[in-house]
Backbone:
């Protein structure tokens, strides 16, 4: 833990823990994840980041955002774009066998657990999100108003989630209860082999052992899909469901390779075949 803590503290040296959360993505260079992650960065402008970072969006990206890279292609992309990445190799693997998908979950929860143990607020996002406004200031205000809340999350309308929390947008407060919750998930990760992220987090939150863990879902007008958002006030759009790219394009929220310096589509086409 000391080695990991030193590494993360160095990466996040510019953050004020009291007011500036860490933004965490988990991504891979294959499939759909990287184009959407690149689109997120392409869409960022001064109006999307807190006042302290508005003057220099590139610096904000380097100092506030961590990408948990699931493969070397993601790491290479982050290196090229000056995005701070964290390799899964930083944590290793447990003594028991995990499927590839469970390895991703295991390392994500280890990263969150390490960050909250270091007293950072953590905003975890799926790759298929777009910021419409600075979410930091309203989220921190919501936490202060709610008092002892430990987690805020997107409200999920999916029928298979078995609960209201959408795991694609979760905001963790570094409380003792959050530390206990993340450590418990890590120690029991092998019990969730056959469930998706949505079901997993909801099963944990509704377990009687976590009755003292306080969490709230955010209004779907502020964080959600385009079907529920109030675009005059919305903070985060999460493109849940099918035809994501087409829907983002229709909303003028997709940056193609001629409009975006990150060259999303060109880079994806150049990836070597998966081994």
Residues:
């Amino acid at each position: 833990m000391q080695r990991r803590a030193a590494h993360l503290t160095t990466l996040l040296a510019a953050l004020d823990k009291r007011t500036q959360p860490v933004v965490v993505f988990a991504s891979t260079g294959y499939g759909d994840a990287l184009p959407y992650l690149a689109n997120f960065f392409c869409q960022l402008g001064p109006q999307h980041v807190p006042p302290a970072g508005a003057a220099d969006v590139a610096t904000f990206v380097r100092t506030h955002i961590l990408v948990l890279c699931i493969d070397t292609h993601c790491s290479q992309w982050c290196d090229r774009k000056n995005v701070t990445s964290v390799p899964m190799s930083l944590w290793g693997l447990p003594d028991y066998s995990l499927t590839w998908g469970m390895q991703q979950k295991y390392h994500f929860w280890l990263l969150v657990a390490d960050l909250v143990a270091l007293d950072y607020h953590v905003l975890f996002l799926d790759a298929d999100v777009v910021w419409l406004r600075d979410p930091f200031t309203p989220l921190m205000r919501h936490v202060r108003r709610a008092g002892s809340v430990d987690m805020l999350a997107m409200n999920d309308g999916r029928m298979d989630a078995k609960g209201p929390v959408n795991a694609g947008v979760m905001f963790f407060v570094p409380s003792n209860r959050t530390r206990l919750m993340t450590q418990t998930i890590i120690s029991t990760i092998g019990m969730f082999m056959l469930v998706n992220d949505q079901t997993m987090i909801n099963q944990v939150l509704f377990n009687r052992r976590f009755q003292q863990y306080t969490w709230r879902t955010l209004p779907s007008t502020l964080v959600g899909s385009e079907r529920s958002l109030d675009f005059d006030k919305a903070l985060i759009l999460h493109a849940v469901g099918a035809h994501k790219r087409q829907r983002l394009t229709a909303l003028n929220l997709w940056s193609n390779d001629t409009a975006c310096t990150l060259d999303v589509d060109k880079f994806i086409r150049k990836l070597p075949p998966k081994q």
Observations:
- Residues 263-275 have pLDDT under 50 and may be disordered.
- Strands lie at 22-27, 65-69, 85-87, 122-125, 129-131, 151-155, 165-172, 215-218, 223-224, 236-238.
- The first helix runs from residue 2 to 11.
- The CA atoms of residues 112 and 122 lie 7 Å apart.
